[in-house]
Amino acid sequence: MKAVIPSAGEGIRLRPLTLDMPKQLLVLGGKPILEHIFDSLPDEIDEIIIVVGYLGGKIIEHFGGNFKGRKIKYVWQKQKRGTWDALLSAQEHIGKGKFLMLYGDDIIDKKSIKKLLKHELAVLAKEVPDPRRFGVVVKAKNGRLLELVEKPENPKSNLALTGVKILDERIFLYPAERHKNGELYVTDSVAKLAQDHRVIVEEADTWLSIATPEDLKRINENYKAHKRKS
Question: What is the pTM of this model?
Answer without folding.
Answer: 0.91
